[in-house]
Amino acid sequence: MAETVIDIQSLTKSYNGVRAVDQLSLQIKCGEIFGLLGPNGAGKSTTILMLLGLSEPDEGTINVLGLDPTREPIPVKRRVGYLPDDVGFYEDRTGLENLVLTARLNQVPEAEAKERAYQLLENVGLKHAAHKKTGAYSRGMRQRLGLADVLIKAPEIIILDEPTLGIDPKGMDELLALIRSLSEEQGLTVLLSSHQLHQVQQICDRVGLFVRGRLLAQGDITSLSRELFADDPLQITVDCGPLNEGLLERIRAIPGVRHADPVIGNGVGLSDAYNSMESPGRTRLIVGSDTDCSDLIARTIIENDVSLFGLQRRQYGLDEIYHRYFEGGEQHDQGSSQAE
Ligand SMILES: Nc1ncnc2c1ncn2[C@@H]1O[C@H](COP(=O)(O)OP(=O)(O)OP(=O)(O)O)[C@@H](O)[C@H]1O
Description:
Belongs to the ABC transporter superfamily. InterPro entries: AAA+_ATPase, ABC_transporter-like_ATP-bd, P-loop_NTPase. This protein is of the alpha/beta class. The protein has 2 domains: 4-228, Rossmann fold (3-Layer(aba) Sandwich), CATH 3.40.50.300; 234-315, Alpha-Beta Plaits, CATH 3.30.70. The chain has 13 helices and 14 strands. The chain has helices at 44-51, 73-79, 95-105, 110-123, 139-151, 169-186, 197-200, 221-228, 245-252, 270-275, 294-303, 318-327, 329-332; strands at 4-15, 18-29, 33-37, 59-64, 80-83, 157-161, 189-194, 206-211, 214-219, 234-240, 257-264, 267-268, 283-289, 308-315. It has a 6-stranded mixed beta sheet with strand order 5-6-7-3-8-9, with helices on both faces. It has a 5-stranded antiparallel beta sheet with strand order 12-11-13-10-14. Adenosine-5'-triphosphate binds at residues 15, 20, 38, 40-46, 195.
């Protein structure tokens, strides 16, 4: 089991009485890519600043590589690379010169600095632009250079704040793939923040959904949807012939089925199903289940000599998570959806 390299317990930070980060607890393991995802203003940057010792928590504890960033910011800075959302370079110097300068500032021996800088420029796909002034770099190129700049001091953890912001979709995919491969090759732990759930989740081992300073849920996408849509992780719509109470009970007894409700027109219920004027003899059944048991449902219906006209599965996933928590996130976090 990989060791925990970032351990956050009950972290809280307020600005002018408003909680930007509210009782955040989170553990990240060595070599993991963790996505801290949330809409604007969720508290991602505030959390990152506290992890780096650049801002002091009101309450709670943080441990980064065995260090307390508030008390030991310099050793943390040495071992943790940070890419802010808008990285600054000396615009009148080349990419190579900027990297060598960062290497020097981080006590990388002079002889090694240039070699490492060249290697990193190659790794991030900027070899061709090594001698070009960074003032002429595109946003995507600056982010790549930023990644090289973060890596030049050979950190154990890299923290990237909105790394894909302002990059076109192709550039974004390339940058994310690069982060993934760098992490795999070098065993790097990566914490990245983003409000672009769809893009970023593709490279994350786990994500945490952060809304209004609170972590609503964390895990991979499958366990997230299970946690956030615990009421019905999977919905199966069945269109079949008339159902009797006995068959309905058999369907309800299938392992994984939580409920099975016939729905016809405006009415809900078995008698409505029988008496439907719109489609006589047809029943629509909505089944909520934990697992995909659609084959068993189909078999049960057919074995009972009832016609099966259609069966549709709908799994709650990324789109539902996105709509519920990112587009209308502010409204949804106030209810009972706390799923930590
Ligand atoms: N220095 C500050 N002074 C006052 N309020 C702040 C400060 N920094 C952040 N906040 C507030 O704290 C909340 C969280 O902000 P934060 O920047 O951490 O969110 P975020 O998730 O990183 O969003 P974004 O992607 O927009 O930066 C917001 O309501 C913000 O206005």
